[in-house]
Amino acid sequence: MASQQQPPYPMQSRPPVPSSPMGGPPPTGYRPPVAGAVPGQQQPQPQHPGMPYRTSGTPPPGSPMMRPPPGIRPGMLPPQQQQQQRPPQPGMPMTPPLANTVMYQQQSALTGSPVPQPRTPPVLGATTHSTPGSPPPVSQSPTISAGSSAPQSPITEQHHRTTTTRKRMYPDQITKAYMDQPAGQIDSFSSPGFQQQPQQQQQFQQHSPVPTMTAQTYPGNQQSQFQQPMGGQVNALTGQFGNMNVSSPQGPAKSIPLLGAAPIITDLNAPAPPIILPQNSSITNSPYANAEESYKCCTINAIPANESVLKKSKLPLALVLAPYRTSEGDDDQVPVIADSVIARCRRCRTYINPFVTFVEGGQRWKCNLCFLLNDVPAAFDYDAQTQQPVDRWKRAELNYSCVEYVAPTEYMVRPPQAPAYIFIIDVSYSAVQSGMVATAARTILDSLDRIPNEQKRTQIGFITVDSSLHFYNLNASVSEPQMLVVSELDDVFLPTPAHLMVNLSDSRELIQSFLEKLPDMFKETANVNNALGTALQAAFKIVSPFGGKIVCLQSTLPNMGTGALKVREDPKVIGTAKETPLLNASSPFFKSFAVDCSRSQVSCDMLIFGGQYADVATLGCLPRFTGGQTYYYPGFHASRTEDATKFAHEFSELIAEQIGLEAVLRVRASRNLRMSGFHGNFFIRSTDLLALPNVPRNQNYVIEVAIEDELRGPTACFQTALLHTTCYGERRIRVVTLCLPVTNSVPEIIASVNPRAIVSYLANKAIERGITSKLEDARDAVVNKTIDILGAYKSHVLGLGKGSSSPQLTVPDHLKLLPLLALGLIKNDAISQTTRISTDARSNAINLIRTMPIQLLIPYLYPNLYALHSMPPEVGEISEKGVVLPTPLNLTTERLEPHGCYLLENGQDIFIWVGRGVVPQLCVDLFGLKSYDQLHSGKMTLPVVDTPINKKTNLLIGKIREMRRGNYYPAVYTVKEDSDPSLRLWFLSHLVEDRGDSTMSYQQFLQLLKDRVNAGSF
Questions:
Q1: Domain Sec23/Sec24 helical: where (predicted)?
Q2: 106 lies in a domain?
């Protein structure tokens, strides 16, 4: 019986072990006693509050790895020497297992070695972004480094390796123990202690709270060979490198050795280095004076004083923008200035902001970009509505980095545009048979009340297309919808052009009648042709006089009329240099048409349903140059509830989105800074003016910055101005200002790197290189830039010149996850070296990376992996601070236990991995099935079962679907360990830290970086 099993090798007390003769850390497993401790008594453990999981924005300062004592600025502390604890002594009181916790754990029939229980997970906060200056929320989640393990004898380690390759048998007592065995009957040797960090990282990290050890173990829970501490002379050299620090205004930054240790993924949401501005840089003390990362951030938070310093640092200088992101709650609303007092610089046209200077008794203000003196408007200190003076220091533009002005008439070429939507719906055979037409009609019908129409001005129209064009007269003067068919494709004309776009409110009944009849209009069709290009030209003629949005729902490859396409995918060239042409548009029509749309303030959205080859690369040109969005649904069929639900949700959110219309975007910067490159969905109208007929919510833009000459002053500023019309008919200007310090010090620049912004920049540059050159060059560019950054740190911070080699790859603490994210980018579908992904899927990944905000991009490159079978009681429950999420695991098969059940999500898909040795009762509780054999792999909807684990998992899936900004609705896939090979390989391809057929593991990638850094000259 399980209750009678004892550990094969009980833990024995050890005498104190002296330090290494080389001066490095003590040998593995040694824990010196605490001063004043009484032998045989349990010692107190250091406790540190955990860092809450946040939905967006910059995580709060004060995470477990970075919180300094009170009164000391972040970054000023030297590396802390950690306290260590002795191993538990025989006879020490046992810690009982957690009560009321359903633990889907198994005990090996061969060994009884202990495994720590899951730790308290982070709490998902109720808010979705951080507020500068506000105290950070605190959760009770500890941070434990992946890869920690208790000391084991060589025999035990060999025994574990043997048991992991042997098929597990789960006797009846194991299932009984899971179901109803009292906790007191489980023979545990729980003891207080903490999980050891690898030796290379102990000197840089604080202790985590103490996990509880129980005798309920997971079979095969051995650690990776890369997670074991390194010893001997390597430890001594590592310690020497660890003492080297980056000198910066924030203080010395800790150096972290990477080789031999698993990445600490809980720090993926750690805050970027703080922006340290000189005193009195802002004219007010508002904590909201500088831009928040979710609106605008820079790859480095300290700007080089000249181009020479930037080149020495090897760092890219670029801005990452999401100026029209969604707001969450009343506390997150952008302040609106409605008094028509807009103060701008006469020379550079900068808007007044918190970083200007008032001179001459406040009568004039000095521009913080070009330093010109400007007069303060007479109405700046006067409220025209109340006819009374106002306090200028309370004005929003002097206290907030992001504000919106209600634009006066001089900012308008014409009256504000009314929202206009024209839908082009493919009604060919494949579109009708897949159920796309019926689902689209029902979704539009159900979403009519959600389409922005506050002023009752919204216009709407429909075109259906196969080998002919079908227009619909929905004018309120007719009694029922009228179909008008045009079969001439070479020279398209509009029948009754005045009645093809109608007012949504006036013609509501006719629109509803049409949408109800649409699914049956073409249900008997056998037409397999499609003339999308001609339909686009007709829609452009209808909507171009006043501007609007064209929404295309395309299922068949366009094969007739203007812009006809052919199947060009060749499986033989996938993964080779010849694949690049397949990632570019095959017909010039779509790009030239998109440019014409941009000039007329017309945007295009594409929803592509790919049963077969759909040429996403070509059709994606329309959204790319008109500021639209692309959605791809491979293998769509509405008979699958999951397909219909995903499409209906995303389509409904798309047409209900509070968009901006007829917009232009410009970024201004301090003198001698110039915008040199642009990435995103827009059309470049002039050297620095971006035209966006449609501004979707939460779309990302990356803009490269060049330094032309020496920068004047201690700070540099960037100001983004987005002139747009709201979907409620109001012309507005959204202004976002970011101020950064200027420095001549390369170490200070390296100490200020924002790794998430760097990754966003690298992703966009890699996409650009991949579609203009070849995918191999894109991967090489990511690797080379990562090597340059680490090499510059080695040369300019550690002071190691050319020819000096190091046995470790040492990086500053805030960049310790940059290699991991770079590896995730290299392995992403957009540029990965594989022959298993279609060109349509790769083109879709490219479109996603080009538009994703940072909040979505990071999990897309490095997904989140959670263990469902060992969730603590509080996980999956709703607390005061939101839904409690499990602690994420490292993406490696070493974390997948044969009896385990795991959830992996990347923002686009959700996978539930089920091991072949799963406990039968888990199948009953989670899936409502009696055994593993009854479980089917593939896309599915998790059933609702009245059990704790099912309720928690459904709640987690729901929270994952709505916690990030964006319209995406991830589908759920069940993946059995012995399921369909293609589905299994798809899941395993997300395990970034593992080695693939043609890709490196994380440790191999680190070794490559180390060798290249040691061999290079920086």
A1: 756-858
A2: no
Q: Spell out the alpha helix ranges (H) of 371-435.
A: 429-433
Q: Looking at the structure, tell me whether residues 373 and 429 fall in a common domain.
A: no
**Under-50 pLDDT residues of the chain:** 1-251
The answer on 591 and 556 residing in a single domain is yes
Q: What is the DSSP letter of 226?
A: G
Indicate if 579 and 623 belong to the same structural domain.
Answer: yes
Strand 459-465, strand 482-486: pairing: unpaired
Q: Could you give the CA distance from residue 121 to residue 881 in angstroms, rounded to a whole number?
A: 13
564 and 624 in a single domain? The answer is: yes
Rounded distance between C-alpha atoms, residue 629 and residue 604, angstroms? 8
Cα(487)–Cα(681) distance, integer angstroms: 33
CB atoms within 10 A of CB 195: 19
- pLDDT at site 585: 94
Residue 924 lies in a domain: yes
Please indicate, yes or no, whether residues 370 and 434 belong to a single structural domain of this protein.
no
- 8 Å CB contact between 239 and 24: yes
Parallel/antiparallel/unpaired status of strands 602-610 and 630-634: parallel
- Same domain flag for 493 and 460: yes
CATH at 366? 2.30.30.380
Where are any strands of DSSP class E within 86-202? Answer: 115-116
Asked whether 994 and 892 are in contact (CB, 8 A), the reply is yes
Question: Is the separation of the CB atoms in 829 and 841 below 8 Å?
Answer: yes
Residue ending a domain, among 611, 640, 658, is 658
Give the pLDDT score at 880. 81
Using CA atoms, how far apart are residues 173 and 169, in angstroms rounded to an integer? 11
Return the pLDDT at 245. 42
Contact 888, 262 (CB under 8 A): no
In a shared domain, residues 371 and 456? no
- HSE (side-chain half, CA atoms, 13 Å) at 501: 26
Residue at 693 is within a domain: no
Torsion over CA of 61, 67, 68 and 70, rounded to 10 degrees?
70
* Nearest partner of 818 among 861, 876, 850, judged by Cα: 861
What pairs with residue 605 in β-bridges?
551
Question: What CATH number should be reported for the domain holding residue 446?
Answer: 3.40.50.410
Q: How far is CA 341 from CA 74, 406, 412, 496, 665, in A?
A: 39, 9, 16, 45, 21
Of 443, 454, 335, residue with least CA distance to 395: 335
The residue segments making up the domain with residue 610 are 420-658
> Would you state the pLDDT for residue 213?
32
For 267-288, how does the pLDDT look when each residue is reduced to its tens digit (9 = 90+)? 998 899 999 999 999 999 999 9
Contact between 892 and 991 under an 8 Å Cβ cutoff? The reply is yes
Pairing state between β 548-554 and 420-426: parallel
Q: What pTM value is reported for the model?
A: 0.77
Cα–Cα distance list, 1008 to 555, 808, 1002 (Å) = 44, 12, 10
DSSP secondary structure of 5-25: ---SS--------PPPTTSSP
Closest CA to 567 of 846, 845, 842, 838: 838
Which of 658, 684, 705 is a domain's end point? 658
Say yes or no: 383 and 476 in one domain. Answer: no
| Nearest-angstrom CA–CA distance, 65 and 208 | 10
Please tell me the predicted confidence (pLDDT) of residue 252.
52
Q: Pick from 1, 190, 173, 174: which is nearest to 97 by CA?
A: 190
Q: What pLDDT is attached to residue 253?
A: 62
Distance of CA 631 to the CA centre of its chain: 17
Pairing of strands 660-669, 689-695: antiparallel
Examine residue 818 and state whether it is found in any structural domain, yes or no: no
The pairing of strands 402-406 and 388-389 is unpaired
Q: What is the CATH number of the domain that holds 873?
A: 3.40.20.10
Q: Are strands 673-679 and 701-707 parallel, antiparallel or unpaired?
A: antiparallel
Strands of 433-570, DSSP E: 459-465, 469-473, 482-486, 502-503, 548-554
Q: Give the count of domains, the chain.
A: 3
Report the C-alpha gap between 286 and 279 in whole angstroms.
13
